Amino acid sequence: MNKNTDIDIVIRYLEDPDNEQLKRQLNDWIQEDTANLDIFLDMKAMWQGDPLPAASAFDTQGQWLQLNTALETLPAETTATATRTTSRKSRVIQMKSRYWWAAAAVLAAGLTWTWFGPGSYKTITTAQNLDSLHLPDGSMVYINAHSTIRYSRSFGKNNRQVKIDKGEAFFDVVQNDALPFKVDAPDVEVQVLGTAFNVKAAKAGVKVFVQSGKVSAAYKGTEKKVILTPGQEASLLHNGNSIDTRLHKEKNNILAWKTRCLTFDDAPLTEVAAALSDFYNVQVIISNQQLADKKLLATFPNMPLEEVLDIMRKTLQINITYKNNLVEIH
């Protein structure tokens, strides 16, 4: 597969990320060479509008001349029919423009590496969709919507540190006793050897939940820390010094954003309201406090909020109104 075709795969996927065939093609290309993942992530970041580095003493003009020469040799798109319609010609012109942009993105990615050096960070920002990332050490990161994480370009060589600037991520970490895995969140540092855990950086503070293994969560610059085991969650407030811990039952909704399934096992409405608010990004209030202790036994596998509320109305025989991103239970 030549470089022009590689660029075409990435661009077509970025234009239509829900296309299953394009997803498979992109995945096959990434599996061919681990360096392809770096190219894809850099191009994706630029596609989403991440800023490029400032100009340096790099011989930009010379590189562009080389690039222009290479682009002039790009093969024209072929079609099964001998004649092309006007719309088809328009598409060919558009794709050549895309090739130019994509090649520029690849060149800029190389500039970023050279200019910032091995200590720089790669940044992944999600909008309304979830995303996942295969780190160089084999660990997996699943990223919630509206989140931003960063990791060093030297990740896996002399460090295994990931920064969460905002949002939420689930980590499935490959064990390496010689090189602990660290998550740097606002005011909080999480350290593990090999485990699966969730970190949520919100306005009020940071929450750490452990699915398996053992995790240390500590306030930066202090000795105030807690060791968490499976099922435990720690809450660490911004500018605080106390750590609240809670042991969750096996069926909980902390990872519902990742599994896309809400499960309530005789859960009180106060707990249901909090889970719905977090999952659907809406405000949920219980205006009639006599309903707060009502229990819900139900499972909602990635269902629209309107359907969930309708089932709750009928099951619990309560009144629910939903308007302008506000759900009121009364």
TrEMBL record:
<feature type="transmembrane region" description="Helical">
    <location>
        <begin position="99"/>
        <end position="116"/>
    </location>
</feature>
<dbReference type="GO" id="GO:0016989">
    <property type="term" value="F:sigma factor antagonist activity"/>
</dbReference>
<protein>
    <recommendedName>
        <fullName>Iron dicitrate transport regulator FecR</fullName>
    </recommendedName>
</protein>
<feature type="domain" description="Protein FecR C-terminal">
    <location>
        <begin position="262"/>
        <end position="327"/>
    </location>
</feature>
<feature type="domain" description="FecR protein">
    <location>
        <begin position="125"/>
        <end position="215"/>
    </location>
</feature>
<keyword id="KW-0812">Transmembrane</keyword>
<keyword id="KW-0472">Membrane</keyword>
<keyword id="KW-1133">Transmembrane helix</keyword>
<dbReference type="InterPro" id="IPR032508">
    <property type="entry name" value="FecR_C"/>
</dbReference>
<dbReference type="Pfam" id="PF16344">
    <property type="entry name" value="FecR_C"/>
</dbReference>
<dbReference type="InterPro" id="IPR012373">
    <property type="entry name" value="Ferrdict_sens_TM"/>
</dbReference>
<dbReference type="Pfam" id="PF04773">
    <property type="entry name" value="FecR"/>
</dbReference>
<dbReference type="InterPro" id="IPR006860">
    <property type="entry name" value="FecR"/>
</dbReference>
